[in-house]
């Protein structure tokens, strides 16, 4: 029996958002080498600042400057840092109560060894030289009972972009493996539920209706019917083609569940429900264990399918 297919995957995107008055003030001040908290309804100063009081849920507006020095309230040693962590050498994650604050901030302490850090140790911020208005403007904390650095002038921060990346190795399940191997041969393999006889494409290991394994393999054609569609007019990162274009749900002949794919070869204003389409495959030498072997769908030229033929598959 061949080993299941597996491959490294890298999922990533840039998350961009506006900051609002509370987070914007906090990030702007970090850029200025300042740390800002906010006073809660019970008089406590929270760092990082909260938008709403954790007890009364009232909106909080009284910003309070706190020091960039403080005390370690608890810590955990990290002997082997992971990708994306603040330091690439052993360090301590620590809860740090800054002078003037009543809550603790989680950040890294560059202590050198676990023997040098302890609860109650005095620390101060080590600022990053190139600050952009992010929590990473604090490169880390360092052990010191000296004063913090003086603030500097900097522009306000109103928008932030946070890159998100996830690296992992995916191993195909017993259902995925023959599906992916079929794609490498230009075959579209689905699974049928033995109870309700619905045919799922892409295949599912179990029928969501009956809760039983889908044990019967079914090979489908690469022709189908458009059940629904949308015209994409908004550009975004990683887009294959410039908008406008059509993303459509295609119900392959013999399947009971449509799947989303790209529709080309027709003007967006001419696309309609019931349009018959066929797959346009990439050159065979480019095939791999992926649905991207089908570059897109295009109109097949057949008459539109009657609504009753796909009305139960929307």
UniProtKB/TrEMBL annotation:
<dbReference type="InterPro" id="IPR012340">
    <property type="entry name" value="NA-bd_OB-fold"/>
</dbReference>
<dbReference type="Pfam" id="PF12172">
    <property type="entry name" value="zf-ChsH2"/>
</dbReference>
<feature type="domain" description="ChsH2 rubredoxin-like zinc ribbon">
    <location>
        <begin position="182"/>
        <end position="213"/>
    </location>
</feature>
<feature type="domain" description="ChsH2 C-terminal OB-fold">
    <location>
        <begin position="218"/>
        <end position="282"/>
    </location>
</feature>
<feature type="domain" description="ChsH2 C-terminal OB-fold">
    <location>
        <begin position="64"/>
        <end position="128"/>
    </location>
</feature>
<dbReference type="InterPro" id="IPR052513">
    <property type="entry name" value="Thioester_dehydratase-like"/>
</dbReference>
<feature type="region of interest" description="Disordered">
    <location>
        <begin position="291"/>
        <end position="314"/>
    </location>
</feature>
<dbReference type="Pfam" id="PF01796">
    <property type="entry name" value="OB_ChsH2_C"/>
</dbReference>
<keyword id="KW-0238">DNA-binding</keyword>
<dbReference type="InterPro" id="IPR002878">
    <property type="entry name" value="ChsH2_C"/>
</dbReference>
<protein>
    <submittedName>
        <fullName>DNA-binding protein</fullName>
    </submittedName>
</protein>
<dbReference type="InterPro" id="IPR022002">
    <property type="entry name" value="ChsH2_Znr"/>
</dbReference>
<dbReference type="GO" id="GO:0003677">
    <property type="term" value="F:DNA binding"/>
</dbReference>
């Amino acid at each position: 029996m061949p080993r299941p297919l597996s491959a490294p995957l890298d999922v990533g995107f840039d998350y961009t958002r506006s900051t609002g008055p509370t987070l914007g003030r906090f990030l702007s001040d970090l850029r200025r080498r300042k740390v800002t908290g906010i006073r809660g309804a019970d008089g406590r100063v929270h760092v990082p600042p909260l938008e709403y009081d954790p007890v009364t849920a009232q909106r909080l507006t009284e910003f309070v400057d706190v020091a960039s020095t403080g005390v370690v309230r608890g810590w955990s040693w990290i002997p082997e840092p992971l990708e994306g962590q603040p330091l690439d050498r052993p360090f301590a994650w620590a809860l740090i109560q800054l002078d003037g604050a009543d809550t603790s901030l989680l950040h890294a302490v560059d202590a050198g060894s676990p023997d040098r850090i302890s609860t109650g140790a005095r620390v101060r911020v080590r600022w990053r030289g190139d600050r952009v208005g992010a929590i990473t403007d604090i490169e880390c904390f360092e052990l010191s009972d000296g004063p913090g650095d003086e603030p500097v002038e900097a522009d306000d921060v109103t928008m932030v972009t946070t890159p998100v990346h996830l690296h992992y190795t995916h191993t195909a399940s017993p259902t995925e493996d023959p599906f992916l191997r079929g794609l490498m041969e230009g075959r579209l393999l689905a699974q049928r539920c033995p109870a309700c006889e619905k045919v799922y494409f892409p295949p599912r290991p179990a029928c969501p209706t009956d809760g039983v394994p889908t044990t019967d393999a079914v090979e489908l054609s690469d022709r189908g019917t458009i059940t629904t569609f949308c015209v994409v007019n908004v550009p975004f990162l990683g887009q294959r083609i410039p908008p406008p274009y059509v993303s459509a749900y295609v119900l392959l002949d013999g399947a009971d569940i449509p799947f989303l794919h790209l529709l080309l070869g027709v003007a967006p204003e001419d696309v309609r429900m019931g349009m018959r389409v066929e797959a346009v495959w990439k050159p065979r030498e480019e095939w791999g264990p992926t649905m991207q072997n089908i570059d897109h769908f295009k109109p097949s030229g057949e008459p539109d399918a009657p609504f009753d033929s796909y009305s139960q598959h929307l």
